[in-house]
Write a structure and sequence with these properties.
Elements lengths: L13 H10 L1 E4 L3 E7 L8 E4 L8 H18 L7 E7 L7 H21 L1
Parallel strand pairs: 3-4
Antiparallel strand pairs: 1-2, 2-4
């Protein structure tokens, strides 16, 4: 099976990012912070957006974070609950390692969805 990360799978609008960050449920570990909010259509595939603050580092470091997070989502999107929008950002002072990010994204997505259901 071929996994992609096209426009339909991205959170693109500023209002969608803001809504997820303000009203979504949050889950975090030592590497990432993930916000989840129920999507408008419950049958849509999971969508993800990445936000990297400038305090994270220079442009090279921020782009590395984005590449690793997007690739982790792309490869594990079949394990992530559908019908939700996710916004991911790195934890302050965390280092981008592939192994930790790859494990964190699906685990935090499931944890955040459980919290959305309990609200």
């Amino acid at each position: 099976m071929r996994y992609t990360f096209g426009k339909q799978q991205r959170v693109r609008r500023s209002t969608e990012f803001t809504l997820a960050l303000k009203k979504g449920s949050c889950a975090a570990d030592g590497v990432l912070v993930l916000f989840a909010i129920a999507a408008t259509a419950t049958d849509q595939p999971p969508r993800m957006g990445v936000t990297i603050p400038k305090k994270t580092g220079n442009a090279v470091m921020r782009n590395r974070w984005k590449r690793l997070i997007r690739e982790s989502f792309r490869l594990s999107q079949h394990n992530i609950p559908a019908g939700y929008d996710y916004v991911v950002r790195p934890k302050k002072d965390a280092k981008p390692t592939w192994a930790e990010i790859k494990k964190s994204v699906p685990r935090l997505a499931k944890k955040a969805v459980r919290r959305v259901g309990s609200q």
